[in-house]
Specification:
The protein has 460 residues and is mainly beta. It is built from 4 helices and 25 strands. This is Carboxypeptidase regulatory-like domain-containing protein.
Length: 460
């Protein structure tokens, strides 16, 4: 996103001196406001086109027809005006990513309409604005299997009977996963993937103390194609931890493996030989975390810091959300926070929707704590049992998700709540949630973490 912001000055250098008033879009049946310029110089947009292709990929497709528009003196809230315009054309707006940097801000978005889908970038920097967007060709879904006909005619009586088909040969049984037999002088073990299959290329770190000199020592190895490892070590007692590193959506993640013993401090006597086995798991309480743990690093899954803007929303979000929201979700409303996976998870498996449910806290009467706004009451926590204005939604299997939040009011009616990825843009019915790894994360040096927590803002 930073790179996208920096492309803006280079693009502005290629603009014609005369600004066309309100040029018509080539992608949708509408015209831009006065001051917009449609850029057609391919050299000028070459780098921005690369960023647009990434945006299209994030939206689940590829660009087929693109358009680049520049405003050198944009009016205030131009992006919000644009978003309202595309919604009036029947498109559903979805924010995919957002960044606010010292040198500008940028948004990545997707639009779904009755006849076509689009993806784009909105960039504002140095008092200028750029829109880069394109028509999407979405990735093809597999064709559904054709259902068998409800009725099939009987063959004519005179026809010869067809021979019965030969019985299908049973599939060969899956090869059993073998745990290596302990042998004196070695620490051995087996590492499995999330489906219980041997995991090759997992890193295993041994640390221990030798019997003869009481010397602390450590070793490292990788699992073979059958998921096993074997290390010849001096006689002593050894512990182990294992990790697996893989790439997902252009990011490199390292995952700690779950020890089969359930205790990360399990040790073995190498003079007798011993096994220390592991398995990759995408969710669940991390081995060694106590019951009732609630930190994001206490779980194998990823985490979202879900932050309520408050009533009025300026309590913890931008000043522009200063009014008490009419028809806010009253106390006792049931809030459903739904994470719907987009595509496969990091291990290649198919994800399932994850839903968190809680009851809304009551809204104080006008003039009551914690606000004295004459137009209505206020509250600082959305959840009735939240100790602070935000809460953690932990242990989501790593993937890409669409997040929506719906309040079911006491009268049974439903109301969507607004979402955003920054505290100044809490305007969306849904957002796309993606995670990134810790900077320079090395599983040999840490006991927890590895995935940065994502912050999402919500308001009535």
């Amino acid at each position: 996103m930073k790179g996208t912001v920096r492309l803006l000055p280079f693009l502005l250098c290629s603009l014609p001196s005369a600004l066309a008033a309100g040029p018509a879009s080539t992608l949708v049946p509408a015209s831009f406001n006065e001051g917009a310029v449609i850029v057609t110089d391919r050299a000028a947009v070459a780098d921005l086109a690369s960023a647009l292709r990434d945006a299209a990929s994030a939206a689940g497709g590829n660009c087929t027809k693109s358009e680049y528009v520049v405003w050198t003196a944009p009016e205030d809230d131009l992006e919000a005006t644009f978003n309202g315009g595309v919604k009036s054309l029947g498109y559903t707006y979805r924010l995919l990513d957002r960044s606010d940097e010292a040198d500008g801000r940028a948004s990545v978005f997707a639009l779904s309409g009755p006849k076509q889908s689009l993806a784009g970038l909105w960039v504002e920097a140095q008092g200028n604005a750029v829109l880069a967007w394109c028509v999407l060709k979405l990735a093809a879904s597999p064709a559904p299997a054709k259902p068998a006909p409800a009725l099939q005619p009987n063959p004519p009586a005179a026809s010869a009977p067809k021979p019965a088909p030969a019985p299908a040969k049973p599939a060969p049984p899956a090869a059993p996963v073998k745990v290596p037999a302990p042998k004196p002088g070695y620490v051995t073990g087996l590492v499995l993937d999330t489906q219980g299959r041997p995991l090759a290329g997992a890193r295993v770190f041994l640390s221990g103390t030798t019997f003869t000199q009481g010397q602390k020592t450590s070793f490292e190895t990788e699992t073979k194609t059958d998921g096993t490892y074997s290390l010849r070590v001096p006689d002593g007692r050894y512990q182990a931890k294992a990790s697996y590193t893989t790439t997902f959506e252009g990011q490199t993640f390292s995952f700690f493996m779950d020890p089969a013993s359930g205790n990360p401090n399990t040790s073995v006597d190498s003079s007798e030989g011993g096994n220390l086995n592991f398995r990759w798991t995408l969710s669940g309480l991390r081995a060694g975390s106590g019951a009732g743990a609630g930190r994001d690093t206490d779980f194998y899954g990823s985490s979202v810091d879900f932050s309520y803007c408050g009533l009025p929303a300026k309590a913890y979000c931008a000043e522009k959300y200063g009014a008490v929201t009419p028809g806010a979700a009253p106390g006792g409303s049931v809030i459903n926070v739904t994470f719907t996976p987009q595509g496969k998870l990091v291990d290649g498996s198919v994800g399932k929707p994850v839903v968190y449910t809680f009851k809304a806290a009551p809204v104080a009467p006008p003039g009551g704590y914690p606000y004295s706004d004459p137009n209505g009451g206020g509250r600082t926590t959305l959840g009735a049992d939240w100790p602070y204005h935000s809460t953690n939604f932990n242990d989501l299997p790593l993937g890409r998700y669409t997040l929506t939040v719906t309040a079911t009011l006491p009268d049974g009616s439903k109301r969507p709540l607004k979402l955003g990825l920054t505290d100044g843009d809490v305007e969306h019915d849904s957002v796309t949630v993606r995670w990134v790894p810790w900077d320079d994360f090395n599983p040999a040096s840490y006991s927890g973490g590895g995935i940065r927590q994502v912050k999402v803002y919500v308001r009535d």
